[in-house]
Amino acid sequence: MMKNIVFIAVLMMSLPSWAALNWHTGTVTRTVIEENKYGQCMVVITPNVNLSAPACSSSWVSFSCTGDFNSSKVGYQKMEAAQLALVTGKRVSVLVNDAKKHNGYCFVERIDNLSY
Q: What does the alpha-carbon distance between residue 59 and residue 96 come to, in Å, rounded to a whole number?
C-alpha cells in the first residue's frame, strides 16, 4: 500500500506544469523604461491584464528588454509596437505568459497592433 502511495506521489510530481498563455486586448496607456527593473521596459494595458490572465496581478506587463525571456532586440521591438499604439490611440492584443515574470509582472510573448 505504501509503495502505491509513493509511486503515485512521484508520478504526480513528474507531471509538467504548464504556463498559462492568455490573450488580452486593450489600450496602452503608459510606458516605462527603467534600467535594472521590470525587465527594463514595460507598459500598462487597460482594461487590466488580470481580467484575461488572473495570475498577473497588475495591468503592467513586461517585454523583457533585458533579454531574459527573448532577445533584447525583440523586447525593444515589442516596446516600439506598444509605443506606436500609445501615440496613435489604437488597441493592441498581447499574448501574456504568467509563468515568466519580472519583479512579479507578467511577460508578453507577442504583441499585435490592431487597426480598430
A: 11
Of 59, 62, 82, nearest to 70 by C-alpha is: 62
Q: Which three cell numbers stand for residue 6?
A: 509513493
- pTM of this prediction? 0.81
Q: Roughly how many angstroms between the first and final C-alpha of the chain, as a whole number?
A: 61
DSSP helix/strand/coil, 52: coil
Question: pLDDT by residue (tens digit) across 11-70?
Answer: 444 444 456 899 999 999 999 999 988 999 999 999 989 888 889 988 999 999 999 999
* Residue 94 · residue 30 · CB < 8 Å: no
Q: Give the three-state DSSP class for 49.
A: helix
C-alpha cell at 68: 531574459
Helix (H, G, I), strand (E, B) or coil at 23: strand
Distance CA 77, CA 97 (A): 18
3-state secondary structure of 8: helix
